[in-house]
Specification:
Layout (H helix, E strand, L loop, with lengths): L1 H6 L1 H31 L7 H5 L2 H27 L19 H4 L11 H4 L2 H8 L1 H31 L7 H5 L2 H27 L24
Helix pairs in contact: 4-8, 4-10
């Protein structure tokens, strides 16, 4: 067990932080939702009905879809674009998907390489793009969940104000939907861009996300020095 925790400490730490943050969001969201209900002369609801409600779903999915879109675009962009000096980038000249030898696939795979990396054809193509496929799928599912929850929340709000309900199609082209969506997207893109740029000139000793402290700014990795 000790070895398992040590070998997976980074994943486990962020899983714990994620669960704590999600629980905290649900508690704060429940309190805020009940304040809104009381303000509009309605009875407050219990915790369990709240965390299974569209109001909670839309807030959670709204953040998830922007995060996974960020990673999807960053992973895709780093195939074709480089940033000299950033450890978040490949070396200049290494743009593209790479050859079979550098990727250790097919005849160039190791004995302990994943089975689908050693295989050819469709299995190798799928596995070669599996990270993008999974990130893109989670983004689309989260975006769809956000839109479904959002239209329900909007129609509940419309009902309280005596306004006719709208369709899902109406909602996904509405200013409210895109205002909420783009608020998240722009912050994610700013964070990624800042990380790429800051790591050219700034260092964090001991972090895999940073170059060695003494490496020159213009060097992307130790191999290019």
């Amino acid at each position: 067990m000790r070895a398992f925790v040590r070998d997976n400490a980074l994943s486990l730490a962020f899983l714990i932080i994620f669960v704590l943050a999600l629980v905290g969001q649900s508690i704060a969201g429940h309190a805020y939702n009940n304040e809104e209900l009381i303000t509009h002369g309605q009875a407050p609801i219990d915790y369990l009905p709240f965390v299974t409600s569209s109001a909670f779903l839309v807030d959670v999915a709204e953040n998830w879809q922007s995060e996974f879109l960020q990673f999807f675009l960053f992973i895709f962009a780093t195939i074709w674009f480089v940033q000299r000096g950033s450890p978040e980038s490949k070396k200049p000249g290494d743009e593209g998907v790479g050859d079979d030898r550098s990727q250790r696939v097919g005849a160039h795979a190791r004995a302990d390489s994943p089975a689908w990396a050693r295989a050819g054809g469709a299995r190798q193509r799928i596995y070669s793009n599996s990270l993008l496929l999974v990130m893109g799928t989670i983004f689309l599912l989260s975006w769809f969940a956000q839109s479904l929850g959002g239209v329900i929340v909007t129609n509940d709000d419309n009902a309280m104000h005596g306004t006719p309900p709208i369709t899902w199609t109406d909602y996904i082209v509405s200013p409210d939907f895109w205002n909420r969506t783009l608020q998240n997207w722009q912050s994610e893109f700013l964070a990624v861009g800042a990380m790429v740029a800051f790591t050219i000139y700034l260092r964090q000793r001991g972090s895999s996300e940073s170059k060695p402290v003494g490496l020159p700014h213009h060097v992307t990795s130790e191999e290019t020095e």
